[in-house]
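Think of the structure tokens as a kind of shorthand, similar to the way a musician reads notation: each symbol stands for something richer, in this case the local conformation of the backbone. In the example below we present two proteins back to back. Begin with the first one, reading the sequence and then the tokens, and try to describe in your own words what changes along the chain.
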Amino acid sequence: MAANYQDFQAHFQILAKKRPELIVNTLSNIFTMRLVGNKTHGDMAEIGLTEFIHQFMYNYDCLHVGKERFRAKTHEEDIVIKDELSNSSFPVSIKAYGDGPLQLSTDKEAKMFPELEQRGKDISDLEGIAKIFSSDAFKGLSQINVLPLIYKEKKLECNIMVFDFEKMVRDTRRILYVPKDYHYNTETQTLSESYTRKHPIYLFLDEHGRYICEVRYGGPEANALQRGLWTHTQYAYSYFKSLTNGWISYEHNDALVKLFRLALNATAQGHHAANTILQEDIDRFFSTSH
């Protein structure tokens, strides 16, 4: 992980601790978008966090590059964050997922799974594991800056959790092939039949056989959900750092849904007027001492 992204995380964590109402408000509005559509909140997370950084993190600015208008991607980024003090920029991929499976990399070139296939089906020697992480398919892990927004919808709780790739590399002691229609039992450390899996995976396990992450099938039949590097937040919680200092409660904002309904039918003149009012509200909100 790049040093400038680590510095950003530290600043974000401090802000979330000193002014928790700021991030709670923004996350509440982002996850309110699930009332509009199940996938809407992901796009809103990208533009919402872009504006959060712009408005509230004085030494950073941010540009949303996730959509065609600004498309100039070199990595898997959705936003590009600029450190105003060092004048350096770094890309970040925003993920908005429920508490469970989380995609860390789409592996668009489908290199990871084939790399593991040629190494064997049960890799436990440290030299072999080191060669995997230094291979062309995996060496890019250190350049992946993922910012996951994780939510528990029934409990109305959310968390911004960053996966520790360096710890994953340090702790991996076994890489195990799991065929389709099979499941790995972490308690018995054995495979058993499970007819819910349609494609094979490779599991990354620690010295005690505990789950860290997985690489999903990368063949020509694989779609985006069946490919790439994944983890499971419930099973690999110790590999995450919370930028919100733990789980926080959020509320749905019904007024925001109505605002979108009106905005989509209003004119640009009305939008300009509303933008002025909203900016005044943000300035007032940020300047209020608590």
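Once you have a description of the first chain, move to the second and do the same.
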Amino acid sequence: MSKFYNWKNGINEEELTDVVNTLNNDGIVIFPTETVYGIAGSSMSEVAIDKIYKAKNRPREKAINIMLADKKDINKYAVVKSKMEQNIIDTYMPGPITLILEKKEDFGKSFTLSNNTIGIRIPDNEIAQAILKRLDYPIIAPSANISGKESGVDANEIKEDFYNTVDIIIDGGRIENAEASTIIKVENEQIVVLRQGKVKF
């Protein structure tokens, strides 16, 4: 049975410690962002990665992006190869944008599959940032929905699908005007929009 934490009126530090310990020990956690709710696990834990694929009923051939607390950490996991990529990072991060970059060869093989790229997102949300800043690794964090369903925007609705499959659900309130992050990549110094979301190109 999942723990249910109400952070609508602020982050509970004791519960935050529990969230971090859970992620450090192969657990998975549902949390709000500025776009939709995400389901998080350590990108370094094969156990957590497998749990997320199973909880979402997500096909294993679909890659998952990562979230970081700070853009200065991007070069630990990916390669910024162009001036435009760097300009996007400087202009839009943190924020509701996911940038596809060339990944470091030895990172994320089980959730990036055969791709040599990885999606990077730095959320602009107090709860998401509080969690990420307490971790020394990126999280994978696809949207908190069963694959094929609409992305989750309300913790009380989300728990109906995940109450027995995740360790913790954090209620940060209903996300109004929710829209997924925009996913882009740069090809030949041109922005290619892979998914139109909150940031419009």
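Compare your description with these statements about the second chain. The two ends are 42 Å apart (CA to CA).
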